[in-house]
């Protein structure tokens, strides 16, 4: 048995116990613990490019093969990596309470692979395709990149269904995310630097609406001074403990 590393205040325990609407925001740090942080290898072909150079519509129009090859490389990394215990804890948590919304900035689909059913994907999903011409999502889902860019039935080029630099976040996902943040009485910001808006506004909105704000990260962020509780460390270690603590607090009142 490993010992607990998290220490909760009385108010944090009460927030856990009394929460009926939990909202979670996960960011790159959660994926990094599964080994898929930046997709920037230290060597090899792709280390020569910055993500901004490839993850945009101009790059895709100008050189679709190059962009597709990069995404195929990234997909291979994702499919060969595994969700970590933090992903698993969140999936278990969702099964135990109706008021649970998981919002992620990650595109790797780890939450779903860990068992989460309701996931709001703010930046899309790298394993999914979308037709550039007709917009059909899921088109050519199983089409792997070979030598040419895969095409939709309509003849349009398929692109990864992710939000590229310079693109808007999907409106429905964004609306759902802000509604959940507003309704939350417990908000967890996990593994995100809390800098990039609009996602960075979610914890602020939750806090302003009266939620207990709990942050988990390997280092303090700009959000930390606003958090009711900051737990420093890897989410893969802290989340399973926090979920256990939540279960224990609920057991006390049932
Ligand atoms: Zn199409």
| Tally of distinct domains | 2
Question: How does the major sheet shape up?
Answer: 6 strands, parallel
CATH superfamily of the largest domain: TPP-binding domain
Q: Remind me, CATH topology of the largest domain? A: Rossmann fold
Task: Tell me which ligands are bound.
Answer: zinc ion
Series of secondary-structure elements, N-terminal to C-terminal: HEHHHHHEHEEEHEHEEH
Written overview of the protein:
- By secondary structure, the protein is an alpha/beta fold.
- The chain has 2 domains: 10-36 and 83-123 and 168-253, Rossmann fold, CATH 3.40.50; 45-80 and 130-162, SIR2/SIRT2 'Small Domain', CATH 3.30.1600.
- Helix content is 39%, strand content 16%.
- The chain is built from 10 helices and 8 strands.
- The chain has helices at residues 10-18, 28-32, 51-54, 57-62, 64-80, 85-96, 110-114, 171-183, 201-208, 235-253; strands at residues 22-26, 100-104, 119-121, 124-131, 158-162, 186-190, 212-217, 229-232.
- It has a 6-stranded parallel β-sheet with strand order 3-2-1-6-7-8, sandwiched between helices. A two-stranded antiparallel sheet has the order 4-5.
- Helix 1 (10-18) crosses helix 10 (235-253) and helix 6 (85-96) runs parallel beside helix 10 (235-253).
- It is elongated and about 60 Å long.
- The two termini are 26 Å apart.
- The model has no long low-confidence stretch (mean pLDDT 90).
- The chain binds zinc ion (ZN).
- The site of zinc ion has 8 residues, from loops.
